[in-house]
Amino acid sequence: MTGRREPFSAAVTGLGLVTAAGVGAKATWHSVTQDSTPSGVLRQEELADLPCDFMYTVAGLDTTEVLGVAAQRLMDRFSQLAVIAAREALADAGLDPETWDSDRVAVVIGSAHGGLAFYDEQHVAMSGRGARRVSPKLAPLTVVNSAASSVCMDIGARGPSLGVATACSSGTVALGTAHQLLRTGACDIAIAGGAESPLSRLLIASACQMKAVSTRRDDPSAACRPFDAARDGFVVGEGAGLLVLERPEHARARRAPLRAHVSGYGASSDAYAAVAPDPDGNGIERALRTAMADAEVSAGDIGHVNAHGTSTVVNDLIEATMLRRVLGDHPLVTSTKAMTGHTLGAAGGIETALTVLALEHQLVPPTANLDEPDPQIPIEIVRAEARRSTFDCAVKTSLGFGGHNAALVLTRA
Question: What is the reported pTM?
């Protein structure tokens, strides 16, 4: 008979962000807290004749200059973004791959679609010029685990290496998996989060057919509007968000400054439908309650929630209703997707990093484009400008196609 596991709080010692809101954690945080209008939404030539012809992209980043020509050619763009984010996170944590025990370093990175852009490119090549034009690099560059393997090779990590694919909850599940690896002693350091670069004509065309994405072509920067009465779907984005997590004793031994703690993790499956969440929100509620029990916190302890908040009509209402049922009207809730786009498998990594920064700064980012809150939404959502508050505990929630739910509890260092 097994008893309940002892509480375990992984130390967060480093952050790395590459988003449409900014390259680097500092730039992204400034944008989501200080800018009122998303600037990273751009029309894409590849999508020109689709109902949604725009997405959030990382501007001003020359991956060839950062990574070098040879290394760049061995990675799809989502892996490139992951490597860049990992380098920033390690530098932020003050870790030197030349001096660590590489066998005790894990890498866990989530992605919903992997190297979809390269896959699309190769499909076009074969359709137009025959099978001999297909690159032999197709398989290694497009599989979901290639971001994790690319990071491992770049930094010399030789511990557990995992690619997580649970749709839009992938980044959060990756962080929860890293938390569990550290808890069991499988590693001392874990670089974890998510990466995605889904500029794919095929993917966006399918999303349009599903009526999942916004078709506000007249004003793309206002298209993503979580919890707003006029929301009509999400807007896809690219990016990467990785965190360095450590066993607390390992961080203490090297006197690393702590940014926060990942103190609880919960996951669940709706077992309901391929693309629709449980309409009662029971699945994400189970994940959230599991994470809270794991961290040994109550509803009254939680001062902030970085919600999944995709800007879809049904999902936003289901999530908000669940949050009110579990947490009451106490926490300040935000969705940062209007500034970064819905980065699919990367969302959990990016938004967990932003939750760490919210704890550090005691500042909750606003939900951009929230002009007229949906009167059916029963929670307090921060809008218009960032709000100062005092809180020691925050939550990140994520939902994914197929009914994959995940939640993290983060506590102040």
Answer: 0.97
